[in-house]
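agent> fetching stored inputs for the adenosine-5'-diphosphate docking request
agent> found them:
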Amino acid sequence: MIPAVVQIAVPTPLRRMFDYLPADGRHAEDYLVGTRVRVPFGRQQLVGVVMGFSPASDLPATRLKKIHATLDDQPVLPADILTLLQWASRYYHYPIGEVIQLGLPVLLRQGRPALPRRVLEWSLTPQGQQLNDDELAALGKRAPRQAALLSSISLAPGQRADADTLDREHTHWRAPLGRLQANGWVEKHERAQLLEPSGPEPDEPQSGHALNSDQRQAADAVNDKVDQFGRFLLDGVTGSGKTEVYLELIRGVVTKGRQALVLVPEIGLTPQLVQRFRQQLPCRIGVLHSGLSDQERLTVWLAARDGQLPVIIGTRSAVFTPLKSPGLFIVDEEHDLSFKQQDGFRYSARDLAVLRAQHAQVPVVLGSATPSLESLFNVQQQRMTRLTLPQRAGPAQPPRLHILDVRHQPMEAGLSPAMVQIVRQHLDRDRQVLLFLNRRGFAPTLLCHDCGWLAACPRCDSHLTLHRSVGRLRCHHCGTEQAVPRQCPACGNLDLRSIGAGTERIETELAGLFPQAEILRIDRDSTRRKGSLEDLLGRIQNGKRQILIGTQMLAKGHDFPNVTLVGILDADQGLYSADFRGAERMAQLIVQVAGRAGRAEHSGEVLIQTHHPDHPLLMQLTVQNYAACAAQLAEERQGAQLPPFSRLVLLRAESTAVDAPLAFLVQARQHAESLAVGGVVCFGPMPAPMEKRAGRFRAQLLAQADSSGPLQHLLSVWIPKLEGIKNKRQVRWSIDVDPQEMF
Ligand code: ADP
Ligand code: ZN
Ligand code: ZN
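agent> prediction call returned; pasting tokens
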């Protein structure tokens, strides 16, 4: 049958595609799948993407609208990315129109042409080149600006000057340049700008280290499967040279003219990684990070799609970057929470990278020193091959971990006397000390010593954090800010005291305790200004006698060769968490922070302060290793039938009305029960661990099953029921498939 209507993904929260009629004089099949079109939608005009055709619509033809305009001659989204986005929309149950939008760079969402930025350049014509010295001298007298322009152009690289170059060297150059063109001495060219203007030409590649035998084995195992799908877990202790293995694999892929996509948690935090890639790979590298302009992002995206960029490094959303000939997918620090989007379209970039590799029939490598229990489970199920790098590369020794019992100890600057003494020893040897405290600000809260008033956030079930240097109280959950009161708002007393310590307070107190050391604080507050993190990292790189105090920003992949002592000031925060993944995260964080110690020739030690020195998790980490700890955690999860031994879907609801979310979820549960999908168990509803946040009350309902099949089945029949629940009180709800955080 001849298709009569075009199915279009339109960016709306409705969970379906929309039927449109072809524009006058065109047929449905004239439209290509993957091209953008402009369509009327309600009173607006929206940019949609052609997804398919159908012989007829469910709607009567009189109600169908016509496509207004076609925006592309060729599909902007290649077929494999369309398939991936459709799969993700179905699996995460997020509206197809919005998912397709998120797969496009911002400028393409807005309907702008799918072209890289055009750059204008000017060169001399043959006539211009033939001007002799006399003629030039005459021109210099008559029209000095024109003569100066001629000289700039002939001296420019490749004898072509672009507008940026002329801007740097001349003022008001456009009119004289126009006269040079009119005289036939200069001609204009237009070329597509491939990468950011300052984008370095590939440096002379520096060869890295020759791989050691563990690295060699790991690389060979992946290379053996280079033209087929294979999932690998590169399980290598911190400093074992995982990055060198990635580089080796990427070189192989690039040599064959194929592309590698590397996903990392946060590029801004680890400029060193990108630098190493640039230095060691003999090719152009596209970096997708949050600092790019929309135009730069589009340019990299197009270059990746058209096969002009052999290597792309990016964070979570880069998983949707189209590649002309994919050869390898890498997810570095695969355990990191940032790969799972926590709002809106809640996808896992790690899991989608695996799916892409499977579709493309190429290997995917997930790397970590602290693999997630999910990945370890996949190894156990033989769905994934584990490659281990059990030792640090080069001369570095693994750090030794010790527990410091701080019960009954007098604490100074958050340090017990034993810690103070050891810090001093390391500083005396001109080394650096890294202190880790996952709490920024001066103090977690402010208390009135007279009446007990606490600075609470008016919009959350939480305290306001004191930021003394800026004189503000801030909520770390909703961003509410207030000036620090001079007297108690409840009783007027002046005796307001800060309770507990954050990095800002420790920083101040350390300065008093260790006057001989330079104290550097690294957290989101101290690195807010652009470039300040780079400055700090630069000072640390060659520093001596420094104490680095910071939050988990310090845990991420940095290589600080002179750090020989890592102190974890408070390990107790994660031991008793409301989230069943709390212990896993704490273990990962401790091992990652510990991994910053002793990465060069000096060996390192790690001290963990705790009030629970006998806690089994800490015992395993210190006496054994992460693997032992993970095995123990896995056993507990299996006993409780929690992931990875089961699958979960979380239905969250929130509202400004206190009872509305629970009332909504009670109905949701009734629907789930009446649908009676076999193998699914519901838990709840229950209030979220932090019930009130940013002025909204939150609750959740959990559905669990042995595998994802029953849950997917439930969602497909349950969501239409949820959409039908009458919630006059404006409940907002969302579905989280494979949730990573339980609140
Ligand atoms: P990871 O990514 O596992 O943390 P890196 O790749 O950053 O480890 O390597 C840690 C350190 O060891 C780096 O300084 C790196 O230069 C060095 N290194 C890596 N592989 C080797 C090797 N085969 N021989 C000598 N040094 C190496
Ligand atoms: Zn008071
Ligand atoms: Zn708040």
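agent> quick read of the result: The longest helix spans residues 708-724.
agent> awaiting further instructions
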